[in-house]
Amino acid sequence: MSLLQVKDVTHAYASSTLFWQSKRHAPVLSGVSLTIEPGKCLGLLGTSGAGKSTLGKVILGLEKPQKGQVLFQGMNLYDTDASARRRLRRDLQVVFQDCYSSVNPRMTAEQIIGEPLQNYESLSSKEQKRTVGELLERVGLNADDMTKHPHQFSGGQLQRINIARAIALKPKLIVLDEAVSSLDMVTQSHILALLSDLKSTYGLSYLFITHDIKAAYSISDALAVMEKGEVVEFCEDKAQFLQSPHPGVRNLVQSILSEHPRYRSL
Predict the structure, then answer these.
(1) What pTM did the predictor assign?
(2) ABC transporter domain spans which residues (predicted)?
């Protein structure tokens, strides 16, 4: 059974004209379908406005679609009771692009990472501190960092804290919404290596939402491309992706810059 199944999802945001005289709905997602298998990473590519982040919110249970189904571990996210949704939510976590707005600036690293543990586990203070310390070390930081506040970390370090929070409950699926886009190239490579290591260690599945084809190709098992709210290409084997004749894929491939400026074409 697939870990995640998105079936014919359609979603639109309500909008209105001046003085609320009339309302209309701008379509964002149109009949989107995709699957993610256990232990696999699906890279979701597309330009700005393609609907990638909206689809991520629908999968996370944050935006109820007008039509379609989201089945996670065989259960419909939008057709279950509160108790079942809470159990599913434990196995479904997220890391957003902006690492600073994703945390409370007044909380310490220990409090940030420990928040999901407090919500779902019954740990003593000593056990939780030990667990947080282990999670910090697992993402390449030090246990002593748990007393620090967000402003005392670099962007890359803070994103590691967000990742530590996301894996604290050992979830089945993590939605990574442009999780490395705001980082410099060196930090990006380190975070991608960390994500790959965590994936193999814990058997995690990822939905890796990005516009960066290089980042997606480096970490993903399968790749999908969105355009104007639709999935226009889906390759279960990423090796097939670069040979896809679809214009949307060709545009993404042609946008890749050479590592050396001398070999970049205008």
Answers:
(1) 0.90
(2) 4-253
Task: Give the separation between CA 75 and CA 188, rounded to whole angstroms.
Answer: 34
CB atoms within 10 A of CB 26: 9
Return the higher-pLDDT residue of 245 and 12. Answer: 12
Query: What single-letter amino acid sits at 44?
Result: L
Identity at 178, one-letter amino acid code: E
* pLDDT on residue 23: 62
**Inside any domain, residue 251:** yes
Q: What is the pLDDT of residues 140-174, one digit of tens each?
A: 999 999 999 999 999 999 999 999 999 999 999 99
Average pLDDT rounded to a whole number, residues 216-238: 92
Bridge partners of residue 95, in order along the sequence = 176
**Quick one: how far is CA 154 from the chain centroid?**
21
What span, in angstroms and rounded, lies between the C-alpha atoms of 102 and 30? Answer: 29
Residue 87 lies in a domain: yes
Q: Measured between alpha carbons, how far is 128 from 36 in angstroms, rounded to an integer?
A: 32
Tell me whether residue 181 is in a domain: no
Beta bridge partners of 62: none
Question: Who contacts 153 (Cβ-Cβ below 8 Å, separation ≥6)?
Answer: 109, 145, 161
CATH number at residue 7: 3.40.50.300
Question: How many distinct structural domains can be found in the chain?
Answer: 1
Q: Where are the alpha helices (DSSP H) in the chain?
A: 52-60, 82-90, 109-120, 125-138, 155-167, 185-202, 213-219, 247-254
Give CA separation, 153 vs 15, 157, 176, 190, 253, in Å.
39, 6, 20, 16, 34
